[in-house]
Design goal:
The complex is a heterodimer. Chain A is an all-beta fold. Chain A has no helices and eleven strands. In chain A, the strands form two sheets. In chain A, strands 2, 4, 5, 6, 9, 10 and 11 form a seven-stranded mixed sheet that branches. Chain A has a four-stranded antiparallel sheet with strand order 1-3-8-7, with no helix packed on it. The chains are: A mainly beta, B mainly beta.
């Protein structure tokens, strides 16, 4: 019963580097989303998807790209990392019509 | 502009007593409210929710109260247990098109002492 799996758990990047945070879910959920958690800010929505081939921006989308080619996977791409993107990133999924999102364990990203 | 606010960053409660965590919101379009619990180095886990058509929802030791006129909700945990020590996030959802997106508060760290 894997649920929502995020890789890697930790990552250090240099400013300007690119990378992809992976997210996979095995619950056949249509909705998936990415949040970032920063001290004193709670969790903020970056991008979300309501199904394969459909994505949209959340509250803080700048500097991030997403795509959804399958129901299971929803990768988050940082094209050119900046220190302001140092954060803990959470991927979540939920079935349609339900608001109780299921979260992965998070990826702690540090950009130096 | 923080649409969901948790004004108490931390709360300490003795084991066996009641814990009350508070949350305020500003957006009248929110129609569903949730509480999540988060342990260090783990993702948030869903705890309890309430629809805007209700004013109370109970699940075991956890009860959520919603006061729509005051745009306020609270989570009551009774009796509190040491394992309840965690960060609690209040979240709100307003359906927009086919998506439901969560807006989170900043969290309240609950410590249950022996």
């Amino acid at each position: 019963n894997a649920g929502v799996t995020q890789t890697p758990k930790f990552q250090v990047l240099k400013t300007g580097q690119s990378m992809t945070l992976q997210c996979a879910q095995d619950m056949n959920h249509e909705y998936m989303s990415w949040y970032r958690q920063d001290p004193g800010m709670g969790l903020r929505l970056i991008h979300y998807s309501v199904g394969a081939g459909i994505t949209d921006q959340g509250e803080v989308p700048n500097g991030y790209n997403v795509s959804r080619s399958t129901t299971e996977d929803f990768p988050l791409r940082l094209l050119s990392a900046a220190p302001s993107q140092t954060s803990v990133y959470f991927c979540a999924s939920s079935p349609p019509g339900r608001t109780e999102a299921f979260f992965g364990q998070g990826t702690r990203l540090t950009v130096v | 502009d923080q649409q969901v606010k948790q004004n108490s960053p931390s709360l300490s409660v003795q084991e066996g007593r009641i814990s009350i965590l508070n949350c305020d919101y500003t957006n009248s379009m929110f129609d569903y409210f949730l509480w999540y619990k988060k342990y260090p180095a783990e993702g948030p886990t869903f705890l309890i929710s309430i629809s805007s058509i209700k004013d109370k929802n109970e699940d075991g030791r956890f009860t959520v109260f919603l006061n729509k006129s005051a745009k306020h909700l609270s989570l009551h945990i009774v009796p509190s247990q040491p394992g309840d020590s965690a960060v609690y996030f209040c979240a709100a959802s307003g359906y927009t098109g086919t998506a439901s997106k969560l807006t989170f508060g900043t969290g309240t760290r609950l410590q249950v002492t022996l």
